[in-house]
Amino acid sequence: MLQLRNTPIHILGIGGIGAAVGWGLAHCGYSVILVDNHPGKIAEGRKKGISVVGLGTHQIPIVTFADWIPPNVGIILLCTKTYDNPAVLSRLPEDTFLVPIQNGFDPELEQRDHACEGIASFVSECERDRPVTRITRPGSLHIGARRSITADERAEMMLLAIALGKTQLFPVELVPDIRPYKATKLMYNAAISPLAAMAGVDNGELLTNPLAEKLFFALLLENYAILQQARIPLARIGPFHPKTVSLILHTPWLPALMAGFFRPSLRGTYCSMASDIHAEHARTEIDAYNGHLIRLAGEYPCPINRATFARIQKITSEGLKPQYQHLEDLAAQLPKGTLS
């Protein structure tokens, strides 16, 4: 049985989630090792430490991914983007106690036999070149099993949840099955992220611009329909269960009320895809988001997901700049009546 106080916790990826989780665990006295491959972020972190805005800085050991040796005993928290998973997974033994805390569905990761995963409903935004993160939207960290687990695996999962709960950066909810939470997070992420990223706006702007709002709600409904037809269980993340969200969006006048309710909490927050799409050699998690939904849909019609996937691919492959025009182009590609 792992004793977390005496066992290093390796966190791969110093992004918003990795930086916040690493800071919190170090703050509570746990032994943390951060792993990343961004030279500037590594240099800055080694020199000035890891910071959560408003809460302070901790000096935490940082190892480059090239120099990192996976531990024989311990927990590895996988907080990278899904497109970085292949390089990580190729170096991990199958019996590694791996706990991904990611968004989206990576087919290679899904095939592994790891016991549990985490899903964050809070938003933590880390600067691109410095390990300085800011929690811009409160929410929980859900930890739960992704398959039938042994008594030892359950105990280790509980120890991790307890450790993370001590950080007090976010509530930690230990759930019996993480998969419904992961599917619900995908339903939202695959609507918010690509639209906000291609338009180059914060998440709240999706509920301010009429066309952006119409596309957002339509994509949200299509995502829900895909998951329903695939018989994927969903859980409540935030104030409403996905079924309730669907009913609201199908009811006249209620979508406008819901937009007003959510707009303040989304204003000033940015999806993780936003920084990716601005990168010089842009690559995004679109395949783990909308690509997964398209594969899940099979023959079920999903025109908005297909058009959104194609638009993000075009933007990244041609090095186009984010702008509202992409939303207009996206809407123009949809079959007549899709947004009515």
Would you write up a description of this structure?
The protein has 340 residues and is an alpha/beta fold. Helices cover 45% and strands 15% of the residues. The protein has helices spanning 16-27, 39-48, 85-89, 107-110, 151-165, 179-199, 210-229, 242-249, 254-266, 272-278, 286-297, 303-318, 325-333, and strands at 9-12, 32-36, 50-52, 56-58, 62-64, 75-78, 97-100, 116-120, 123-126, 132-137, 141-145, 172-175. The strands form 3 sheets. It has a 5-stranded parallel beta sheet, with helices on one face. A 4-stranded mixed beta sheet has the order 4-3-10-9. Strand 3 and strand 4 form a beta hairpin. Helix 6 (179-199) packs antiparallel against helix 7 (210-229) and helix 7 crosses helix 8. The longest helix is centred in the middle third of the chain and has 21 residues, at 179-199.
Portion of residues in helices?
40-55%
Q: What structural category do the secondary elements indicate?
A: alpha/beta
- Calculate the mean pLDDT score and round it: 92
Strand share of the residues?
A: 5-15%
Rg, rounded, reads 20 Å
How far apart are the termini? 56 Å
The total count of strands amounts to 12
| Adjacency order of strands in the biggest sheet | 5-2-1-6-7
Main β-sheet, in a few words?
A: 5 strands, parallel
Outline: globular
Task: Indicate the low-confidence ranges by residue numbers.
Answer: none
Secondary-structure element pattern, one letter each: EHEHEEEEHEHEEEEHEHHHHHHHH
Q: How many helices?
A: 13
